Amino acid sequence: MDRAQKEKVVEELGQIFESSGVVVIAHYEGMTVKQMQDLRAKMRDVGGSVRVAKNKLAKIALEGKPGSKMGDLLTGMTVLAYSEDPVAAAKVTEAYAKANDKFVILGGAMGNDVLDQAGVKAVASMPSREELIAQIVSCIGAPAANIAGAIGAPASNIASILSTIEEKAAA
């Protein structure tokens, strides 16, 4: 890899570190190509990506970026899993680590906050952006449904009273 290629990789990694909601660093030593492809597919399904890069280039890219202290995690055979959604990459990597003992989460970063293994696990347990939106919408919609039910209730009560009177009159 010549200097121009290295500079391009550093620039790409810098953009990843700046624009990602979460970056997870893990060891992948001993994983097969099929397992790595499976991980990439799962990350792609949630809008994330997986990137293998030289640790030295990743450390250079981290200089002056949010979460620059996670450079200490870049030792050995590391892989970066990242997503714009602050929870997606953490959820996928946590689930994948449970199923594959050769994939070991070291930590990561969420904005300026550096995460250890427990931090990544905590982020993975949080609801995703879509789940939060659904919860908020249901909270907003519930009062409206209650109001509609309350407004409609007197009319249904009148209708049942009228039908009762009709039945008595017919008898």
UniProtKB/TrEMBL annotation:
Task: Extract the Pfam families matched here.
Answer: Ribosomal_L10
Q: Which GO terms describe its cellular component?
A: ribosome
Q: What InterPro entries does the record point to? A: Ribosomal_uL10, Ribosomal_uL10-like_sf, Ribosomal_uL10_bac, Ribosomal_uL10_bac_type, Ribosomal_uL10_CS_bac
Q: Any idea which UniProt keywords this protein has?
A: Ribonucleoprotein, Ribosomal protein, RNA-binding, rRNA-binding
Query: From what superkingdom does this record's organism come?
Result: Bacteria
Claim: Transmembrane is one of the keywords in the record: no
Give the multimer and partner information: Part of the ribosomal stalk of the 50S ribosomal subunit. The N-terminus interacts with L11 and the large rRNA to form the base of the stalk. The C-terminus forms an elongated spine to which L12 dimers bind in a sequential fashion forming a multimeric L10(L12)X complex.
Q: What does this protein do?
A: Forms part of the ribosomal stalk, playing a central role in the interaction of the ribosome with GTP-bound translation factors.
Q: Which family is this protein grouped under?
A: Belongs to the universal ribosomal protein uL10 family.
Q: What is this protein called?
A: Large ribosomal subunit protein uL10
Q: Which organism is it from?
A: Pseudotabrizicola sediminis
